[in-house]
Amino acid sequence: MTPTLRTAELIRALVQPSSNPEQSARQFPDTHNTETTSLTFNGSAALYRAAQHLQLSTTDTVLLPAYGCGAEIGPFEYAGCRLSFYDNADGLNVDVEQISQILESDESVKALLVTHHFGLAQAKVTALKQLCEKTGTLLIEDCAHALYCEHENTMLGSIGHLAIFSPRKTLPLTEGGIFVVNNTTGDVTIPSQVTAQESVKPERLALLQRLCYSIQQGYRSRDNSLGYALIRGSGIALWAIPSTFIKLIKRAGLTKKAHWLTADAEGSEAIPIYRTRMSSLMHSVYRTTNKSNVIERRRHNFYQLLSSVQTQKSDTIATPVISELPEGFLPLYFPIFTPNPAELVAYLEGVDIEAFNWWQHLHPTVNWTDFPVARRLKQSIVALPVHQQLTSRQIERIASALTAYETETHQLNV
Ligand SMILES: Cc1ncc(COP(=O)(O)O)c(C=O)c1O
């Protein structure tokens, strides 16, 4: 579902010099600039860094999207500020009118979080920035899905006063988040440099275990058609050796439990992660990634799936949420509206295709009756994989599985 670390990428990351400014500058965010960026364990930890940077007090409010994965809530709750929510207008775009009314009427709102879903820019992000400038609110762009994405020739993550990224979602990283402070103009003032905060390095053994797991998953998910069975079997077996050894150490309780948390940890369990950094190895994988290759492959896969879905007869079982491929859009997944997300995910799992019942969890902090659009979205979207490591054959298989599901569903309904 997400890219996995390949041995070649690992070797490239290991042999590259640890701080090469030119190489970093090719990436956005440019993490070489430690005055404006800070490396974190995941996107949630980057959100916590944003809350720290703003020095939010218990009487300050952060305005969050009701349509979110839920991981956005924990860092701000932990920071101790108040939370308030807004709805989407229709589909993935936020309700600017509703946000405007809240910002104009509630002086306690210090920051507004806006998400670029699946890598697609919020259509009115520039207007939102202007609204924030007018009301003295800070705009935080949530670019957890939007690495390497642009809006009107501007990189996403460079528009808001602050931004966060979760590069581990787009690239084969076992962990990794980035917090960004942008140069601000206008009346809104924040510290213009990332303030030094205490952070800890990830535990090496736990990192090695995540690494073994990622590489093994890579062998498991590879397109099998080319007679890879032997390579696949040996690869998995080889990486099982260090992995088993580490599991024994873990079981013996020789290191702290918190060290073994993965970047997927959520809720109160994730708190130790908020102060953990991205490892230098994963930073190196980030820096040495071939950005254009990632962009080209993901856009190609998205387009291929879009073309197949659009040529299918029925548009009731799988309707693309994003029905075009605009310039600057780098898709995180291929989201579709479908009447029964859980059923479709189970069907795909049955044919060995991993898909997500996207954000179906209704976080208890949100009063869902107030946010009908967000609630409806949460009950109707499935995310299909289109990442850079998938081959055209694999995308074709996903498209065929969707067609087969449609046919079966129609037959059942006749
Ligand atoms: C929109 C959004 N923001 C932030 C996060 C947090 O990122 P991470 O999972 O890396 O902690 C997520 C996680 O899924 C997300 O979807």
3D architecture notes:
- The structure is a single chain.
- This protein folds into 3 domains: 175 residues, Aspartate Aminotransferase, domain 2 (3-Layer(aba) Sandwich), CATH 3.40.640.10; 45 residues; 123 residues, Alpha-Beta Complex (Aspartate Aminotransferase, domain 1), CATH 3.90.1150.10.
- It is built from 13 helices and 15 strands.
- The radius of gyration is 21 Å and the shape is globular.
- The two termini are 33 Å apart.
- The structure holds pyridoxal-5'-phosphate.
- The site of pyridoxal-5'-phosphate has 15 residues, from helix 3.
| N to C succession of SSEs | HHEHEHEEEHEHEEEEEHHHHEEHEHEH
Give the proportion of residues in helices. Answer: 25-40%
Task: Please count the beta strands (DSSP E, at least 2 residues each).
Answer: 15
With strands numbered from the N-terminus, the spatial order across the biggest sheet is 1-11-10-7-6-2-3
Give the N-to-C terminal Cα separation.
33 Å
CATH level-4 homologous superfamily of the largest domain: Type I PLP-dependent aspartate aminotransferase-like (Major domain)
CATH architecture classification name of the largest domain: 3-Layer(aba) Sandwich
Gyration radius, in Å:
21 Å
Strand percent estimate: 5-15%
